[in-house]
Structure of Glutamate--ammonia ligase:
Amino acid sequence: MTDTIFERNDTLYSLDPEHTRVAKELGAQGVKYAMANWIDVLGRPKSKVVPMTHFADLVAGAERYTPRGFGGIGNMNPTEDEVVGVPDLSTLKILPWDRRYAWMIADMSYGGREPFALCPRNALRTQVDAAAAQGYSVHLGVEPEFYVFRPESLEGERDRLVPVARSGSLRPSPAYDVEATLDASEFLDKLVGYLSELDFGVYAFGHEGGDGQYELSIGHAPVLEMADRMTLFRFAVKQIAKECGLLASFMPKPYASMWGSGAHLNMSLVNLETGRNAFRLGDTAGEWTQTTYQFIAGVLKHAPAFTALGNPTTNSYRRLTPRLADGQISWAPTRVSYGSNNRSCTVRLPQNRACIEYRAADSAANYYFASALMIAAGLEGIREGLDPGQPLEQASHNSDAPVLPRTLLEAIEAFQADPLVHKTFSPAFVSEYTEMKLKEWESDHLLVSDAERRRYLLEL
């Protein structure tokens, strides 16, 4: 007689024979385990790992999680409901660097009754639906930058990180430097190959302006798909770096005298009725519709609040400065402005593609939350017919345009005070994200650095 004392019957939905067939198909390709990743508030994937024998249960919503796991926020009491993760099968990928694992992105809810308020994917989908109701679909391209280090242990010292590529004093900047690119050729070759297997559409890569800093150019996609893609991208970069004996980081500003790592957000709208890009005027690149300028005006109106999501760490604001510690000019935006091909502005109108480029965001951003607020701001600009004024034709840090938040504290204060934030996100997310980030700022603010001691200890 079969023992049924502990028979599992807690799936959210009925088991589907089709999912059993998918599991067998994956198993035939060598897949042993599946992950239905939910994304925490900081943009990191979290998941249990499930053997393929339980794949159908996983897809039916068998796996439950405690909300406290979401990036350390979520006010939890002992009787709070668990959240259920139901994977979106359209996100199913076999990890090409370890084909034992299948990867999916999950949607989180309280037992299917209501979306979980802290789920980034739910927040973005709400704005995708709002755009559709206004007659648009939203596409996104991202230009992610990151540093790659070679961990080296120095005798008599603590472990330190050495960039995988180094530039000499005769080269004012290692940007586009071929030798610096080839210094990481094993890692980059593996990375681009694996991303190509995942259909990421990598069309260029190269060395950026910091030693050991790289950027990949990835084809655009519908915004929710792109946010899912970037979650896997960050995971892939770090995993493949480990495979090569390296360490990759998306920290916005590892070095005071080198460029920070941005993540420029290239967003466009497609008119659902005509199927045409809503930003392009005719067939000529560089000519823009009124809708484009209205969208930009909305984004600029809410740029201070957006900074709390696009630049979510205390370290982020060491990048948003007019110059580096050694006096070099930085192109990172510092003022609320837009320009025609002006790389110092918060928003740039590129001359070779029909999108707006939000340049202030960095590589620590949660692409779901950041995209959600950017869409909401742009749509408001269209609805209200906002005007961004004339484009800035000079370096933005020399202009009198309003200043972007200079610290995480200023950004969070702007975030809290912006009515659109409260319309876009749940009260739970706004209050708990605010609380978490204020604690982060305070923790950093209370530190006394070695640099401060060197500057003041003997002088004061």
Notes: The first helix runs from residue 17 to 28.
